[in-house]
Amino acid sequence: MAGKRQATPPVRRVVSELEEQSYFYPRGEGELKFNDNTSPYGPSPSVRSLMGRSVVDIIGGFGESTFYPDQSAAALRKDIAAAEGVDAEGIVVGCGADELLDILFRVFIEAGDTVTAPAPAYFMFEHFARLSSATVAKPPMGRPPSLPPPEPGSTVYIISNPNNPTGAIFAEKEMLDIVDSFPGLVIVDEAYAEYSGRTLARETATRPNLVVVRTFSKIHGLPNFRIGYSISSVEIALEMRKVKNPFNVTTVSQKLASVAVKDREFVEHVRAENEVERGRLRRSLESMGLAVFDSSANFLLVDAGSRRDALVAGLAGKGVYVKEVTEPFYEKCIRITVRSRDENSEMLSRLGDVLAAL
């Protein structure tokens, strides 16, 4: 006889109050993904060459399949250090940049702490902060965006540079003034740094409260392999390794990333191609009567005004997906990824049809 079914155990209140971070990611034929900021150029030729080999070759033989991957990612950290001019001991490799952000919040946040995340911002900043039982202050950046002062009593200040979703690039002095005056941790998410050619990576050597987070998902074209890294003082890296899952970055991902980070010529090629297409896309959007913000990344923020909702719905009806922005000063905006010339042209054609019908 079956026993009485037990009730679901209670979960943490902070978890029960959160929503699942479910991101719409179309894969249908003919659909245009202008909502995820991935690179249309994919990985470099040298990375593709390695991908063409068998998994057995990449990991170093069948015997290696019986071992866990290198938990320290020593070879990859050495290659990143050489490329960025930083100390390999201050690098932590993780399962995407998101894992590094999650780790940093868990290392530095006590329940009840306040995190300053100027808005608009990457939505996962708030998600990770709330999971760590922190209060999230979202002072508006204004328009054009500039960095507001930290909320009084904050223990963490986090920004992205270039900013997602505006595409704005903040002056180095503006950011370092905050780092030098703020008593807590400053995290700079540099997911799109290669597109701007600007980074604070080397500043971590002399600023012990600064952490830079980077990813291989954007300009390197490796989002499916979930790999990112942080650059910080050796002391912060040590604390992060205490929290990090030790074996969650596969050998395949590590080796692909090592090849990618050394291929600076390809990175420069993608950056240049993006700059050309970003300019062309902006001019075309403006010719359609849309207001477009300056951008140093691989996307454009567009103010669609009162037509925003109808525009988004109309584009979706034609298989074009963009990202809606809802933060103060940007409530009527959409973010559009800069993709290849052919994709951009097709998107503009469908957008023209939607605008003509409004």
What does this structure look like?
There is one protein chain. This protein has helices spanning 13-16, 45-51, 55-59, 74-84, 96-108, 123-131, 172-181, 193-196, 234-243, 251-262, 264-287, 308-317, 341-357; strands at 32-33, 91-94, 114-116, 135-137, 154-160, 185-189, 210-215, 228-231, 291-292, 299-303, 320-321, 323-325, 333-337. The model has no long low-confidence stretch (mean pLDDT 95). The chain is of the alpha/beta class and 358 residues long. It is 38% helix and 14% strand. It folds into 2 domains: 21-44 and 265-357, Aspartate Aminotransferase, domain 1; 45-262, 3-Layer(aba) Sandwich (Aspartate Aminotransferase, domain 2). Strands 2-8-7-6-5-3-4 form a 7-stranded mixed β-sheet, with helices on both faces. It has a 4-stranded antiparallel β-sheet with strand order 9-10-13-12, covered by helices on one side. The relative contact order is 0.16. It is built from 13 helices and 13 strands.
